Amino acid sequence: MVFSLGRTLYNLAAGRVPAVDVRRPARPSGDVIWLHAPSAAAVVGLTSLARRIESEVQAKVLLTCPEDVALPPQQLRDSAPFDRPAEVRSFLQHWQPKLVIFSEGELRPALIAEARERCIPMLMVNARDPFLLRERDGWYPGLVRSCLTAQQRVFAIDAAGARAFRRAGAEEVVALGRLEEPSAALPHHEPERAALAALLATRPIWLAVGVPEAEEPAVIAAHRAALRLSHRLLLILVPQDFSRAEALVQQMEVAEGWTVAQRRLEQEPDPETTVYIPDSDSEYGLWYRLAPVCFMGGSLSGQGCARNPMEAAAMGSAIIYGPKPGIFGSVFGRLGAGQAARAVGDAADLGEALGDLLAPDRAARLAQAAWSLSSDGGEASERVFQDLRHLMGRGA
Question: What is the pTM of this model?
Answer without folding.
Answer: 0.65
